[in-house]
Amino acid sequence: QWIYLDDRFVKKEDAVVSVFDHGFLYGDGVFEGLRAYNGNIFKLHEHIERLYQSAQSIMLHLPYSKEEMEDVIVETIRRNKLETAYIRVVVSRGPGNLGLDPVNCTKPNVIVIAEPLALFPQELYQRGLKMGSVASRRNRPDVLSPQVKSLNYLNNILVKLEANQAGVDEALMLNDQGYVTEGSADNIFIVKNKKIFTPPVYLGALEGITRNAIIDLASELDYSISETPFTRHDVYTADEVFLTGTAVEVIAVVDVDGRVISDGIPGEITNHLLTEFRKIVTVDGVH
Ligand code: PLP
Prior knowledge:
Elements: E1 2-5, E2 8-11, H1 22-26, E3 29-37, E4 40-42, H2 44-57, H3 66-79, E5 85-92, E6 109-116, H4 122-127, E7 129-137, H5 154-166, E8 170-174, E9 180-182, E10 187-192, E11 195-198, H6 209-220, E12 224-227, H7 232-236, E13 240-245, E14 249-256, E15 259-260, H8 268-280, E16 285-286
Parallel strand pairs: 7-8, 7-14, 11-12
Antiparallel strand pairs: 1-2, 1-6, 3-4, 3-5, 4-16, 5-6, 8-9, 10-11, 10-13, 13-14, 14-15
Bound molecules: pyridoxal-5'-phosphate (PLP).
């Protein structure tokens, strides 16, 4: 396995970073998770845009142009002879001293890892997930924007731990006003009377690339879809609930806080969107 690290490709065993890297010391950096389907990197441009926006927001200056960054990602899957892969791009502040001031970090570290895709079991898509709301709240946008995919994912990790403790598959994260935002690493949608809703991102959800692709796809398929604030009550009483994300694609939720959603099986619209989504992923991207 070849890893892109610090301007070159190195073997996995040699892919090590300094303990003085502020990505390690402070979670100071940004990342992206992408997916390649049959050699096609799904929404590469969108992921690159989001990476650069995350970096701009935390005053991290990437040492490459967007085009160079895209080339590095494409080359990483080529080198590893992968057609279908999960790709992780990490940009850390780089090595500095023990103080947290990034001013002492001279050069960001750019890392690209591509691995064969560990597919979620098909059985999970047929069964659907159990979700539970958690006490931790989505961080407020006036502090650190939820749009920044920062290396400091402790908030999301705590939420995941809460979900594990509660014995559910995924966490339902609310904002500080109690509106539904998203899962620990995926966006949420509900369906009511054949209409699809997802929370507006200003409530505190990451503007997921899969989320946006599903909004476009649903409109093309003539579904009514809108960004509307909703609460847990709306989720409990929905006809269908599903999550979207690079890793999960589209996955049904059949139980939320012990409330069984409809018949407790993945809904018709959810299944339709998943089927259609899997058709577009191999064409809508960069080869
Ligand atoms: N929400 C959070 C907090 C995430 O980390 C992710 C994963 O990237 C998502 C949602 C889903 O976004 P995307 O569809 O771009 O993978």
